[in-house]
């Protein structure tokens, strides 16, 4: 009797494994469909979406070659600008918000409290609330290039980062910093050689959240950047539609494939950190 | 103990006083440019009529009255509310089911977790174009398109959002499920509880914090949805009403605000900003509600 029950449970689990394997395959079908269609001639994408490319519809790498200059803008440039903006923004946010978070918690003055509560408040404000004045301000201050837009990201993204860092800084015992102070360490050195190394794990979590946000963001860069000169990948893909009367779906899928491959590699390489970062960010935010 | 901490914190804060410009300065400056100034300017502009931001005329609540007379705004409000609730229920039920199964030590659960979370990393614009290809691939067999009927647009966006967010919510639910005390589950087993009873009487009460987080996350995500909406249907199909107002049937709130700002007539920017303020109050209200519920539960525990 007991043996029967155990084997029934085992059978149930095997059934679940089979079921979830099928669901998983269905789950990645959209990505596979993108890959297949990026090798098809444009006219076949809409009519033969779910078929393998055959002799008639196979386009080779033509879509990829065409896609490089598709939309009157070189795709390579969009990739470079996306990388520059994402890395600079994440770097700026990590450096300056962690410094500020430590200072806010340890100094705890009125100004610190005001900045902190404004940051917490900013987390519930949707971007649409500030987008119009923000894009005008950014224009006037010449923050409309890939090298300056990270300042805008630092400003609008400071809230969540400071909130997460303050939460962690609170849990660091003060003894170490006091010992450093007694040994004659000034605040700047105390922060950079004593406190910051302890913040690295939190920095990975915050960094991943910021990278995911900036890399995929469409609305902020499209409003702030000078679009004729600078496009990020999401802007590039959105503008493919506007640039011609009809869209070349084959070339669009080729560009989409090129833009999600690095994301998937990044995900598979740092999956552990990404999932952990997302979990901590969600629970705190 | 508590006193000692606050004492030593003040001994540290003395030498820090001179360094505020260094530690706090850069963030504060960027924060003023990127948030504080635009926020207050936004509130001010919602009470103004203007074409250029340098030349504004104060009109009191006129813009707000316009907002609530605007058929397209009201349509997008109800559409968004319906969308947010349907997506909230579907995403959370499915994510919880997946998390529940994956925490029962079935073979391959790590791989399944990896697969389910993957779409979360793809940006909204790209997601929109991927799914518009798929839906049109299916619908073209029936001689129609996702852009032709608003119910396709609605359910299409629901499917897209489920695909994107189930993995995300699943991660939060898994963390919650793993935190359910082992001895409680064992006690239930010894007392002869059926698996359904264990689920509803033991597990769900214990993961209530995760449920609260996920509920509000998916609700606010639904309300704030923009990129996916723009890339999948951009509000199509359109209906022209008797008075000449164009209703974009699948246009959600965020897109409606965007279109009012940057659409055909630039004269309506004051109204657009007033819509943005209403939108802000709505989303912030949801956030405060979540905070109140979480606080209340913390007190009870």
Task: Describe the structure in your own words.
- With 285 residues, chain A is mainly alpha-helical.
- Chain A contains 13 helices and no strands.
- Chain A folds into two domains: 66 residues; 172 residues, MetI-like (MetI-like fold, Orthogonal Bundle), CATH 1.10.3720.10.
- The model of chain A has no long low-confidence stretch (mean pLDDT 85).
- The N terminus of chain B is likely disordered.
- Chain B contains 14 helices and four strands.
- Chain B folds into two domains: 44 residues, no CATH class; 236 residues, MetI-like fold.
- Classes of the chains: A mainly alpha (285), B mainly alpha (301).
- The interface between A and B is large, with 100 and 92 residues.
Structure keywords:
heterodimer; A: 285 residues; mainly alpha; MetI-like fold; 2 domains; flat; B: mainly alpha; two-stranded antiparallel sheet; 14 helices; globular
Which CATH architecture of the largest domain in chain B would you pick? Orthogonal Bundle
Q: Report the CATH topology name of the largest domain in chain A.
A: MetI-like fold
Radius of gyration of chain A: 24 Å
Report the β-strand fraction of chain B as a percent range: under 5%
Strand order of the largest sheet of chain B: 1-2
- For the record, what is the CATH homologous superfamily label of the largest domain in chain B? MetI-like
Question: What is the arithmetic mean of pLDDT of chain B?
Answer: 84
> What is the distance, rounded to the nearest whole angstrom, between the alpha carbons of the first and last residues of chain B?
23 Å
The biggest sheet of chain A amounts to:
none
Number of helices of chain A: 13
Short overview:
The complex is a heterodimer of chains A (285) and B (301). Chain A is mainly alpha-helical and 285 residues long.
How do the helices and strands line up, and which of them pair or pack?
The complex is a heterodimer of chains A (285) and B (301).
Chain A: H1 2-37, H2 42-47, H3 62-68, H4 75-107, H5 110-122, H6 127-140, H7 149-169, H8 175-182, H9 187-216, H10 219-224, H11 233-243, H12 249-269, H13 271-284
Chain B: H1 2-16, H2 20-23, H3 25-45, E1 48-50, E2 56-58, H4 62-69, H5 71-102, H6 109-117, H7 124-139, H8 150-178, H9 182-190, H10 195-206, H11 208-224, H12 227-232, E3 238-240, E4 246-248, H13 253-262, H14 269-300
Helix pairs in contact in B: 4-14, 5-8, 5-11, 6-8, 7-8, 8-11, 11-14, 13-14
């Amino acid at each position: 009797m007991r043996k029967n029950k155990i084997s029934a449970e085992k059978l149930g689990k095997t059934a679940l494994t089979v079921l979830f394997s099928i669901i998983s395959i269905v789950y990645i079908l959209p990505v596979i469909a993108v890959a297949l269609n990026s090798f098809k001639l444009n006219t076949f994408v809409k009519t033969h979406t779910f078929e393998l490319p055959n002799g008639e519809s196979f386009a080779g790498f033509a879509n990829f070659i065409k896609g490089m200059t598709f939309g009157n803008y070189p795709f390579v440039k969009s990739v470079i600008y996306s990388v520059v903006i994402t890395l600079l923004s994440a770097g700026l946010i990590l450096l300056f918000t962690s410094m500020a978070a430590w200072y806010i918690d340890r100094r705890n003055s009125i100004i610190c409290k005001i900045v902190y509560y404004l940051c917490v408040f900013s987390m519930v404000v949707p971007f649409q609330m500030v987008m119009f004045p923000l894009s005008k301000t950014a224009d006037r201050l010449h923050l409309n290039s890939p090298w300056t837009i990270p300042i805008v990201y630092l400003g609008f993204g400071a809230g969540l980062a400071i909130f997460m860092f303050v939460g962690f800084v609170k849990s660091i015992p003060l003894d170490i910093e006091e010992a450093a102070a007694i040994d004659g360490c000034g605040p700047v050195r105390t922060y950079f050689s004593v406190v910051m190394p302890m913040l690295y794990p939190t920095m990975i979590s915050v960094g991943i959240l910021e990278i995911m946000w900036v890399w995929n963001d469409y609305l902020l860069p499209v409003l702030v950047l000078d679009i004729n000169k600078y496009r990020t990948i999401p802007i590039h893909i959105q503008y493919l539609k506007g640039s011609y009367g009809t869209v070349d779906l084959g070339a669009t899928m080729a560009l989409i494939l090129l833009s999600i491959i690095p994301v998937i590699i990044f995900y598979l390489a740092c999956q552990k950190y990404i999932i952990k970062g997302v979990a901590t960010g969600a629970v705190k935010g | 103990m508590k006193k000692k901490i606050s004492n030593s914190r003040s001994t540290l804060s003395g030498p820090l006083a001179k360094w505020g410009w260094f530690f706090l300065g850069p963030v504060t400056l960027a924060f003023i440019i990127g948030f504080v100034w635009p926020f207050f300017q936004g509130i001010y502009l919602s009470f103004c009529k203007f074409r250029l931001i340098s030349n504004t005329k104060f009109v009191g609540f006129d813009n707000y009255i316009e907002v609530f007379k605007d058929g397209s705004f009201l349509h997008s409000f109800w559409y968004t509310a319906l969308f947010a609730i349907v997506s909230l229920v579907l995403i959370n039920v499915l994510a919880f089911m997946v998390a529940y199964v994956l925490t029962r030590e079935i073979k391959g659960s790590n791989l399944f977790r990896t697969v389910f979370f993957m779409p979360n990393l793809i940006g909204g614009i790209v997601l929109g174009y991927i799914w518009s290809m798929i839906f049109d691939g299916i619908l073209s067999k029936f001689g129609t398109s996702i852009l032709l009927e608003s119910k396709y647009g609605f359910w299409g966006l629901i499917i897209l959002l489920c695909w994107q967010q189930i993995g995300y919510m699943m991660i939060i639910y898994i963390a919650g499920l793993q935190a359910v005390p082992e001895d409680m589950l064992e006690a239930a087993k010894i007392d002869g509880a059926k698996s359904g009873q264990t689920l509803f009487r033991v597990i769900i009460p214990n993961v209530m914090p995760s449920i609260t987080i996920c509920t509000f996350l998916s609700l606010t995500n639904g309300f704030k949805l923009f990129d996916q909406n723009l890339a999948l249907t951009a509000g199509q199909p359109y209906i022209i009403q008797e008075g000449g107002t164009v209703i974009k049937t699948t246009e959600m709130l965020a897109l409606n605000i965007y279109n009012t700002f940057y659409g055909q007539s630039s004269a309506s920017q004051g109204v657009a900003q007033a819509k943005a303020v209403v939108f802000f109050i709505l989303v912030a209200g949801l956030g405060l509600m979540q905070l109140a519920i979480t606080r209340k539960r913390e007190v009870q525990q």
